[in-house]
């Protein structure tokens, strides 16, 4: 039995340390044991690495073009009451002047 935590991906007990990470020899997954990740929960991080939650407010950090609209979503636009979802565009929200949108978390920061 290993003295290290089991792999969060495949649950193998044969993990070993490498620098500041733990490594699973079975699935080759590497993770930081100091980061706390909720089991089974969706973890979405903004551009600065802050963890987002449902109901948070975020600020867009770059101009984002919108299909079918002549105007982009401007950098600095504040979006209130976000909802986190699975998928590539992991934030559902409503932006004034544009309506319902799906955004990528890498283009926002927590307000």
Key words describing this protein structure:
111 residues; mainly beta; N-terminal domain of TfIIb; SH3 type barrels; 2 domains; 3-stranded antiparallel beta sheet; 11 strands; 0% helix; 29% strand; elongated
Task: Give the SSE map.
Layout: E1 16-18, E2 21-23, E3 30-31, E4 44-45, E5 51-52, E6 58-60, E7 78-79, E8 83-84, E9 91-95, E10 99-103, E11 108-110
Antiparallel strand pairs: 1-2, 2-3, 4-5, 6-7, 6-11, 8-9, 9-10
Envelope shape: elongated
Category from helices, strands and their pairing: mainly beta
Helix content: under 10%
End-to-end Cα distance, whole Å, is 44 Å
Tally of DSSP helical segments: 0
Order of helical and strand elements: EEEEEEEEEEE
The level-1 CATH class of the largest domain: Mainly Beta
DSSP strand tally? 11
Unreliable stretches: none
The name of the CATH topology of the largest domain is SH3 type barrels
Radius of gyration of CA atoms, rounded to a whole number: 18 Å
Average pLDDT works out at: 89
Q: What is the CATH architecture descriptor of the largest domain? A: Roll
Beta content comes to 25-35%
Q: Tell me the major beta sheet.
A: 3 strands, antiparallel
CATH homologous superfamily of the largest domain, by name? Answer: SH3 Domains
Our count of domains comes out at 2
Biggest sheet strand order reads 1-2-3
């Amino acid at each position: 039995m290993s003295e290290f935590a089991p792999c969060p991906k495949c649950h193998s007990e044969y993990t070993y340390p490498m620098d500041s990470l733990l490594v699973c020899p079975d699935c080759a997954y590497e993770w930081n044991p100091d980061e706390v990740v909720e089991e089974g929960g969706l973890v979405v991080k903004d551009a600065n690495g802050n963890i987002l939650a449902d109901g948070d407010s975020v600020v867009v950090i770059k101009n984002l073009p919108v299909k079918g609209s002549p105007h982009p979503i401007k950098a600095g636009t504040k979006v209130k009451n976000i909802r986190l979802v699975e998928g590539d565009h992991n934030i559902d929200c409503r932006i004034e002047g544009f309506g319902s949108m799906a955004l990528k978390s890498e283009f926002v920061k927590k307000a």
